[in-house]
Amino acid sequence: MKFSHMIFGLSCMLAGVSTQAADYPERTISLSVPYGSGGSTDGIARQLARLLEQELGQPVVILNQPGATGTLQLGNLARAKPDGYTIGLYSYSTATFTSQLLKVPYTRDDFELLGGVAEFSYGIVARPESPINNIEDLISRAKSEAGVFYGVTGAPNNFPFLQLQKVTGGKFDQITYKSSAESINAVIGGFVDVALQGPSEYVELVKAGKLKVIASASNYRLPWFPDTPTIKEQGYDVGITGIIGVAAPKGIPEDAKARLQAAIHKVVSGSEYGQFLVNRYGIKSYPASAADFSVYIDKGFSIMKNMIKTYDIKGL
């Protein structure tokens, strides 16, 4: 009789555990973003949150936490309670590059990666009357007495120019601007020869005939400019990666982690989300699993360490 009572009690306990796991999430989830409202990263996060709400059955609210070149948000995320109700965007460049140039209050081990979200696109633009129409023209200009002046907002947007300078011996002079818009306007005004930014920064200017795209600096052709070859297609193994995903503080409960991973992967793999990214920002979805995203990030640390050493990049 006592044994039967023990079995019944154990069954109730197991049922309670199962119910508890199935109940997640029971309240609002916060998704932190490393930039202010209104930009492309914020827009991506809001669409992701909207679709995750449908999948998880609970509100997903955006927390904009700009500052310290993206490391403020990751620092806050690392210190958040690991209960499954605070997650955040996790940027490849901030995690693998910026963290090796700045003293940051976290390490890779402070995060549980939940999956990939988006892959940013980058292109090089010039004035329509410029003799620079492709990468060969760009290199010819760099090897001339005039050299090439390029506008960027800093690393890693300057990586392709640093790489081209090293492999060709051309002269590439960097002019750093506070915003993407400033670097684009500098091209239009003739203050620099070219700039490298995302397509949403210049698509309307290209349509208006005020700029031209000479190359995709991503590993694929830009969705909005499919006829423009990549730098790699033009003969140089050079490119820039802009991957973002989602992470949680280390120690998140297994049931919450599994539910979030599945929900994120389903949303990011879906056509609604993918079409939104292409139509609104001219970029691609990045539906990597948590495991694949983790491998990609872990490899990135050594890649970025080598970049910093090879090109003698100083602290930010």
UniProtKB/TrEMBL annotation:
Residues 1-21 form the signal peptide. SUPFAM superfamilies: Periplasmic binding protein-like II. The keyword Cytoplasm does not apply. Pfam families: TctC. CDD domains: PBP2_Bug_TTT. The keyword Transcription regulation does not apply. Keywords: Receptor, Signal. Belongs to the UPF0065 (bug) family. This is Tripartite-type tricarboxylate transporter receptor subunit TctC. It comes from Advenella incenata.
